[in-house]
Amino acid sequence: MDSVTQIALGAAVAGVVAGRQCTPKVLLAGAALGTLPDLDVLISYGDPVSDMVKHRGFSHSLFVLLPFSWLLATLWQRLRPTDFTFARLWLLVAASLITHPLLDSFTTYGTQLLWPITTPYAVSSIFIIDPLYTVPLVVTLLASVLWRDRMAKLCGIGLTISTLYLGWSWLALNMVENRVDAQLAGTTLADKPRFFAPTPLNTVLWRVVVKDGDQYWEGLASLLDKNSEISFIAKDRGERPSQLASSHLSDLEAFTNGFVKYEQRNDQLVVTDLRLGMVDYLPFQFALAHKQAAQWQATDPVQLESPAVKPKHLPALWLRLLGNQDIDANLCHVSECPTSEMNVQVSSGTRQ
Asked: Domain ranges in the chain?
């Protein structure tokens, strides 16, 4: 999640744990602890692919944060003695730190909660910025500064509302998953890998990606749709060059669970993460190889500039969120809009 959210979450958690001993200084400490795991962005791993796949690694690991919280609590107690018992002080530090990666694991990007096991965990039920999660935390924290005798209670109210919203996001994800399962049952896509992600700033409109060999199917599903049938769009996914040996490409494929697109642009191999972004706005694109004399040669990774958002698509997205399914075709690039036959394969159900 974004830094503002993590700061607010850390402060709220610290306030709840502190209880009657909560003070503005406790909230500031919780805010600092809440954003501490993201300081790994200051570490360069040498190239953009490594920076991407290793972010939310050791600094977000429960195996690291638990002993680190004990060390911080010990130093805090010795250098700045407080009225807290050591057990409560350790709980405050640990909870403020650990809720950061736990929240991150609900996003699409993925979090290596069990590093050095590098498998990322991604529930993918909430966008990296969602005001409906953040605002209750911020409002109740500001109120707690004004009514200091109710600090812990107000922090608890904000944390409860945000946690309930997080639970709602998981429920909404399951509703969309069940809808897709029902539509694809008995079709050639029934057992294909699929990925779900909320569109920016909400948990009502969802993006669905189904991986199908050298192509993928992309669709939008709103919880306000009257028609449960999703209009999927078929797009070319390309193929991995069989002779190319690239550790960076392997790392990216593992990190995305294979949800990548391969494209040849001039003499470059461009690999795109299909999970993050939507339609034509897929920001994580990397040039990983160069073709010379009909052979692919791995090169140092270069992250390409993100495509600019077209303003004309923003009103369409809002209408689509409200359940207008007639504009699905307008949300894809003109050159990539599907033929009617491509839609029929999924919508009507080509049986196996």
From this structure: 3-169, 185-349
- Half-sphere exposure in the Cβ direction for 198 (13 Å, CA): 26
DSSP per residue over 38-66, as a string?
GGGGG---SSHHHHHHHTTSGGG-HHHHH
316 burial type by CB count under 10 A (0-12 exposed, 13-18 middle, 19+ buried): middle
- pLDDT at residue 342 above 50? no
Strands (E), the chain: 194-198, 205-212, 215-222, 233-236, 260-265, 268-273, 285-292, 295-303
3-state secondary structure of 148: helix
Per-residue tokens: 332: 């894809």
**Token duo for residue 327:** 């504009």
Cα dihedral sign for 317, 259, 211, 127?
negative
321 in Cβ contact with 222 (< 8 Å): yes
Listed residue (183, 206, 26) closest to 124, CA to CA:
206
**pLDDT tens digits along 179-201:** 999 999 999 999 999 999 999 99
Q: What is the identity of the amino acid at 172?
A: A
pLDDT at 325: 84
Tell me the pLDDT tens digit for each residue of 217-259: 999 999 999 999 999 989 999 999 988 888 999 999 999 999 9
Tell me the per-residue pLDDT of 159-169, one tens digit each, with 9 for 90 and over.
Answer: 999 999 999 99
Whether residue 193 has a cis bond before it, omega within 30° of 0: no
Average pLDDT, the chain: 89
